[in-house]
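Justification of computing resources. Each target in the renewal requires a structure prediction run like the one illustrated here; the chain below, 70 residues long, is used simply to show the kind of job we budget for.
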Amino acid sequence: MARIPGWRSWAWPTRATGILIIVLTIADGATENTGVYGLFERLLAATMAVALTALAIGILRRSRPESAQA
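Resulting structure tokens:
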């Protein structure tokens, strides 16, 4: 993403989101036998859903012809 001019602004948010997903995955595995079991699964699922939605919106906006982007 950092190499393509139209996506440069998305490079750091994408990296931050990736790090957040990794942290939530590790936290989910580390809290299997505690009282917060399931919380990190939900946070991970919500984070991934929001990230995927944001990426889909970004792709949709960039795939429209220039004349339709008013």
